[in-house]
Structure formats: C-alpha cells, structure tokens
Amino acid sequence: MMMKKVLTILCALALSAAAFAQTAEEIVARMDAQMNEIETDGFSMTMEIKIPILGSMSTRAYTKGDNLRMEAEVMGEKVITWQSADTEWTYTPSKNTIEIENHTSEKKSDEQENMQMFHDTTEGYDLSIKKETEDAWYILCKKNKSNKDKDAPKTMDLVVAKGSYYPMSLSAKVKGITVTMRDLGFDVTDADVTFDPSQYPGVEIVDKR
C-alpha cells in the first residue's frame, strides 16, 4: 500500500510539472516582456568579440535613454566613450585627451544594435531548448527560410535565467567572428552614462564640433 501511495504521488508531481512545462517560444516571450518592463531604467552588458588571428576584444556598455557609455580595450589601447543624442566624447588615457564630436542620434551604435538583438531573437528563427539546468534554459536559435537577412547568423545560443526570465547571454557567429553578450545589469543611473568633465582634471579637451 505504501508503494502504491508513493507511485501515486510521483505521478501527480510529474503531471504537475508537465503542466508547467514551457516551450522555447514561451520562455523568450516572457524574456521579451521582462526586457520591455525594465528597458526604461537602462541596462549594461559586456560584449566579447573574437576575431581569428587578431584575438579578442571586450567592451562594457551602459545605456539609458539616448545616452550610452562604453569602456573598451582594443589592441592594448583603453578607450572610454560617452554618447548623447547629439554629442560624443572619447577619452584616450594613453594620449591624455578627450575628443568631442557631433553625434547623429538617428544612427545607432553597434552596441545599441547588439542590445536590440535580445528583443529580436524570435524573428526569423526557430527556437528549441538545447538543455536545462536548475538556474537557466539554454535555447538554440536556428535561422529559418523566412529570414531573408543575409547578414543574420545561422544560429544563436541564448541563455535565459529561471525565475527572473532575464537574458544571461547571447552568442552568435558571423563570417568567422564570434560575438557574445553577457553579464547584463539593470541598475544603470544617469551618472553612469553622462560625461562629467570634473572627473578628468588635467586632461586635454579637443573639440572637433
């Protein structure tokens, strides 16, 4: 009798779990909803680009509204860039200079375009759950025939956190170049994305506007 009760309980639990099972499309839809709710507060993420022979480049980007700040290291050269709707500031520590230039708000930066990829995951892609852990879903995105964008990657790997439904990372490979976006944060302040000259005393300002 005891064994029969145990089997009955296990069957009930299995049926309950099946009822709450989610498809990859449903998980991504929940992720999109979460991203839309928090987007106005701004968010940050790390982008890694791996290029054959040349190696890797890492950028930490912060965005809020029309403002953006990027911290990058390219070929050993560190650079910090701020962007507003109409102005761009670039600080190069090795030169001890900050260059100011006009910025066209209609033209999104590569980083803003990459961030938008989190919203466009389902468009033109077939989704499937590759694996699942206690903390996350690992979703494979395969380009389908309806996707006519020649530059779109054939596959993307998306990781979504359980509980919060926040994206944890997104990786894609295009023309031999691998791009990974990870370590998203959602507590960006105005100060994080606004250039403050008082923080850089003694740095030469070169105004190219």
Write structural notes for this entry:
With 209 residues, the chain is of the alpha+beta class. It has one domain (22-207): outer membrane lipoprotein receptor (LolB), chain A. It is 19% helix and 43% strand. The chain has helices at residues 2-19, 24-38, 110-116, and strands at residues 43-51, 55-64, 67-74, 77-83, 87-92, 97-102, 125-132, 136-143, 155-161, 167-174, 177-185, 204-207. The chain has a twelve-stranded mixed sheet, with helices on one face. The longest helix is centred in the first third of the chain and has 18 residues, at 2-19. 18% of the residues are buried. Residues 1-20 have low confidence and may be disordered.
Return the CATH topology: outer membrane lipoprotein receptor (LolB), chain A
**CATH architectural type:** Clam
End-to-end CA span:
84 Å
| Overall SS class | alpha+beta
Number of helices: 3
Overall pLDDT level: 80
What order do the helices and strands follow? HHEEEEEEHEEEEEE
Assign an overall shape. elongated
Number of domain modules: 1
Helix content: 10-25%
Strand content: 35-45%
Please give the CATH class: Mainly Beta
Strand order of the largest sheet: 7-8-9-10-11-1-2-3-4-5-6-12
CATH homologous superfamily label? Lipoprotein localisation LolA/LolB/LppX
* Total strands: 12
Low-confidence stretches: 1-20
Radius of gyration: 22 Å
Characterize the biggest β-sheet: 12 strands, mixed
